[in-house]
Amino acid sequence: MAFSILGLVLASQNSAITRFAIVLRDRARLGITEPDKTILAHSLQQLMEKILGEVLIVALASALSVRLVLLTT
What we know:
Layout: H1 2-30, H2 38-72
């Protein structure tokens, strides 16, 4: 059971990292960093911070579940 939970945690972490990479790719393509698009750039910056926060939470959960698995074996 612990390994299935660990698998779900790792899958969600990979999903968050993939979303973050897509956002960065799209930002580079659209050139959102231009001064006339500051509102859009600010919104995208908030989105990236939110995704990064999710990645950190999932990474922490992953580390804790791995530790739990190691302690129970």
